[in-house]
Protein backbone atom coordinates (compact mmCIF):
# COMPACT_ATOMS: atom_id res chain seq x y z
CA UNK A 1 0.00 0.00 0.00
CA UNK A 2 1.10 3.56 -0.72
CA UNK A 3 0.03 6.17 1.81
CA UNK A 4 0.76 9.86 1.31
CA UNK A 5 -0.21 12.03 4.27
CA UNK A 6 -0.04 15.82 4.59
CA UNK A 7 2.66 16.07 1.92
CA UNK A 8 3.97 19.53 1.10
CA UNK A 9 6.88 20.12 -1.28
CA UNK A 10 8.97 23.25 -1.68
CA UNK A 11 11.56 24.48 -4.12
CA UNK A 12 13.37 27.03 -1.99
CA UNK A 13 10.63 29.27 -0.61
CA UNK A 14 8.03 28.36 -3.27
CA UNK A 15 5.55 25.74 -2.07
CA UNK A 16 4.47 23.71 -5.13
CA UNK A 17 2.47 20.96 -3.40
CA UNK A 18 0.40 21.74 -0.31
CA UNK A 19 -1.06 19.22 2.16
CA UNK A 20 -1.64 16.33 -0.27
CA UNK A 21 -3.03 13.07 1.15
CA UNK A 22 -4.17 9.82 -0.46
CA UNK A 23 -4.04 6.04 -0.02
CA UNK A 24 -3.43 3.63 -2.89
CA UNK A 25 -4.07 -0.05 -2.20
CA UNK A 26 -2.81 -3.06 -4.15
CA UNK A 27 -4.72 -3.43 -7.42
CA UNK A 28 -5.92 0.19 -7.43
CA UNK A 29 -4.99 2.86 -9.96
CA UNK A 30 -4.54 6.53 -9.19
CA UNK A 31 -4.48 9.38 -11.70
CA UNK A 32 -3.01 12.71 -10.68
CA UNK A 33 -4.40 15.42 -12.93
CA UNK A 34 -4.06 19.18 -12.99
CA UNK A 35 -2.86 22.18 -14.88
CA UNK A 36 0.70 22.58 -16.08
CA UNK A 37 2.89 23.48 -13.11
CA UNK A 38 0.44 22.15 -10.51
CA UNK A 39 2.92 19.67 -8.98
CA UNK A 40 2.00 16.37 -10.64
CA UNK A 41 5.55 15.43 -11.67
CA UNK A 42 6.96 16.78 -8.42
CA UNK A 43 4.56 14.58 -6.47
CA UNK A 44 5.56 11.51 -8.48
CA UNK A 45 9.25 12.33 -7.97
CA UNK A 46 8.71 12.63 -4.22
CA UNK A 47 6.93 9.26 -4.06
CA UNK A 48 9.89 7.68 -5.88
CA UNK A 49 12.39 9.45 -3.62
CA UNK A 50 13.79 11.36 -6.58
CA UNK A 51 13.25 15.01 -5.68
CA UNK A 52 15.97 17.20 -7.19
CA UNK A 53 18.50 19.16 -5.16
CA UNK A 54 16.88 22.26 -3.72
CA UNK A 55 13.51 20.58 -3.21
CA UNK A 56 12.26 19.52 0.21
CA UNK A 57 9.31 17.40 1.28
CA UNK A 58 7.42 17.64 4.55
CA UNK A 59 4.82 15.07 5.52
CA UNK A 60 4.74 11.33 5.11
CA UNK A 61 5.09 8.95 2.17
CA UNK A 62 4.88 5.30 3.18
CA UNK A 63 5.25 2.21 1.00
CA UNK A 64 4.00 -0.90 2.82
CA UNK A 65 4.46 0.98 6.10
CA UNK A 66 8.05 2.08 5.35
CA UNK A 67 8.74 5.83 5.35
CA UNK A 68 10.12 7.20 2.07
CA UNK A 69 10.69 10.83 3.10
CA UNK A 70 14.28 10.98 4.30
CA UNK A 71 14.91 7.27 3.64
CA UNK A 72 18.45 6.08 2.94
CA UNK A 73 19.53 4.84 -0.50
CA UNK A 74 19.64 1.19 0.65
CA UNK A 75 16.07 1.51 1.98
CA UNK A 76 14.87 3.06 -1.28
CA UNK A 77 16.52 0.32 -3.34
CA UNK A 78 14.80 -2.33 -1.24
CA UNK A 79 11.40 -0.67 -1.64
UniProtKB/TrEMBL annotation:
UniProt-recorded Gene Ontology molecular function terms: ATP binding; ATP hydrolysis activity
Enzyme Commission no: 7.4.2.9
Gene3D superfamilies linked: P-loop containing nucleotide triphosphate hydrolases (3.40.50.300)
Highest taxon, organism lineage: Bacteria
Keywords assigned by UniProt, alphabetized: ATP-binding, Cell membrane, Membrane, Nucleotide-binding, Transport
Domain ABC transporter: 18-73
Catalytic activities: a dipeptide(out) + ATP + H2O = a dipeptide(in) + ADP + phosphate + H(+)
Cellular-component GO terms for this entry: membrane
Cellular location(s): Membrane
Any Pfam family matching the protein: ABC_tran
Listed PANTHER family: DIPEPTIDE TRANSPORT ATP-BINDING PROTEIN DPPD, OLIGOPEPTIDE TRANSPORT ATP-BINDING PROTEIN APPD
Family: Belongs to the ABC transporter superfamily.
Protein name per the record: ABC-type dipeptide transporter
Naturally occurring in which organism (per UniProt): Xanthomonas perforans
Lineage of the species this protein comes from: Bacteria, Pseudomonadati, Pseudomonadota, Gammaproteobacteria, Lysobacterales
